[in-house]
Amino acid sequence: MSLVSLDATITLAISVRDRHVSAAWYSAMLGFELIHHIDDAGWSEMQTKTPGVTLGLGEQLEPSPGNTVPVFGIGDIAVARQALEGAGVRFDGATETIEGMVSTATFYDPDGNALMLAQDLTGQV
Asked: Of 38, 77, 70, 75, which Cα lies nearest the Cα of 54?
């Protein structure tokens, strides 16, 4: 049995210079559908052709091509983080929350690859 229980979603987060331009490209070239642009967070999300898999576009002045971060959906990020930290997993800073939207926490595998947990807050009051 695993230490934490992930849900059936994954977001592949990539860095881009202009989310709107990139979203149009992914739509035209690969048929991905825009879920939303969140301008205040510098984030856009697109539905891929695979159920449960989305593509996240994080806007950066200097994107880092090849630096994809898998973002795993989780029901309770605080409980999962505590369990992983208790097992010696290294996290990058505090859990970040955008109220009414999402809480995220970046952590690393033994080789230093970045991974992220994300708890959907859209249905919570």
From this structure: 70
Q: What is the model's pTM? A: 0.77
Tokens 């048929």 belong to 31
Using alpha carbons only, give the angle 104, 75, 64 rounded to the nearest 5 degrees: 30
Query: Do the Cβ atoms of 26 and 74 come closer than 8 Å?
Result: no
Task: Give the model confidence (pLDDT) of 64-113 as tens digits.
Answer: 777 889 999 999 999 999 999 999 999 999 999 999 999 999 999 987 88
Chain mean position to CA 24: 20
3-state SS string over 70-103?
Answer: EEEEECCHHHHHHHHHHCCCCECCCCEEECCCEE
Residue by residue, DSSP assigns 32-61 as: -EEEEEEGGGTEEEEE-SSTTEEEEEEE-S
How far apart, in whole angstroms, are the C-alpha atoms of residue 110 and residue 93? 17
CA–CA dist 25, 30 (Å, integer): 8
Residues across the chain: 125
